[in-house]
Amino acid sequence: MKGSVFDIVHCSLVDGPGVRTSVFFKGCNLSCTWCHNPESHSAAPEILYYKDICTGCGACRCEKPVCDRCGHCALVCPTGAKKLSGSTMAAEAVLEEVLSDKVFYGEDGGVTFSGGECMLQREFLSHCLQLCKENGIQTAVDTAGNVPWAAFEAILPYTDLFLYDVKVMDSGLHKRCTGSGNAQILDNLGKLLDAGKRVWVRVPVIPGMNDNKENFLALKSFLQQHPAPEKIELLPYHAMGETKYAALGKTCHPFAVPEKETLDALAAHLDGAAVRR
After folding, report:
1. pLDDT digit string (tens) for 111-158?
2. Are 69 and 201 part of one and the same domain?
3. Which of 65, 114, 150, 273 is the most buried (most CB within 10 A)?
4. In this structure, what DSSP letter does residue 161 have?
5. Confidence of residue 273 (pLDDT cuts 50, 70, 90)
């Protein structure tokens, strides 16, 4: 079983509990205006070009009439000005990368599958999760939940924790921000909570989009209808992805970084339940 992966981060401390290996699948069915991983949007391989560090040496020159994104130019670039995003990996190769970090996991750590939207590659994800569980590794799935419930059912037996993105509670605004309404997303979240699964709800805090009292009171009201998630995290917007938009020839929509006082006030609307990074 093979799938499309665009990055594997070793010894991550920000994608769930403990030390983790984060595996990022390529392809997403949302188009969030604040996304910091624009290279995750398309399922196809892409070449990022960082012109500011290009020396013009010509090592990457290609004789092909049309670029097929084979990645050779990135491989031979001496400065890293060109980078390939996306490659096909076998589930066994992913497991090998995960196992290389196993000594660091301790009691809480493990592997986190993320994206993009990792659940769009349901069969590949399920196979990877099964292999990890067979090797005694704790598993987490980071998802926006915009998939049919059947996709969750396929991985429930192999997933220890869900990191679940809740971006905007108002469905109309959610569609304007992400290209999709949120009815399916919230329905799936409710089912996970009702099923007693471990869930961390994660809210990206985007100034001018969702950083308001009404949005957080609506989230609180929704969660009160279900068993409580294990944790709620507020994830403040950051600008680390902006250079990647330029490298892909795309336009970035920058936002301000929210102040700590704003995060504190929003957490208070959730009765202080949020854990912030």
Report:
1. 999 999 999 999 999 999 999 999 999 999 999 999 999 999 999 999
2. no
3. 114
4. E
5. low
Q: Based on the domain organization, do 125 and 71 belong to the same domain? A: no
- For residue 274, pLDDT over 70 is answered with no
- Rounded to the nearest 10 degrees, what angle do helices 183-194 and 213-223 cross at? 40
Same domain, 119 and 210: yes
Position 275 confidence tier, pLDDT thresholds 50, 70, 90: low
* 169 plus 76 within the same structural domain: no
Same domain, 75 and 146: no
Task: Name 141's Cβ contacts closer than 8 Å, sequence gap at least 6.
Answer: 112, 113, 114, 118, 119, 125, 129, 155, 159, 161, 162, 163
Question: Any alpha helices (H) in 142-274, and if so which ranges?
Answer: 149-155, 171-178, 183-194, 213-223, 242-247, 260-269
Report d(CA 274, CA 48) in Å as an integer: 35
The amino acid occupying position 94 is: V
Sign of CA dihedral 48, 51, 52, 54: positive
User: Cβ atoms within 10 A of the Cβ of 186, count?
Assistant: 17
Number of domains composing the chain:
2
Task: Give the domain extent around 208.
Answer: 2-45+87-276
pTM exceeds cut of 0.85: yes
Pairing of strands 2-12, 274-276: unpaired
Rounded alpha-carbon distances, angstroms, from residue 265 to 110, 131, 165, 205: 32, 42, 20, 12
> Based on the domain organization, do 188 and 231 belong to the same domain?
yes
Burial classification of residue 216, based on how many CB atoms lie within 10 Å of its CB (0-12 exposed, 13-18 middle, 19 or more buried)? buried
* 61 shares a domain with 113: no
Confidence (pLDDT) at 277: 44
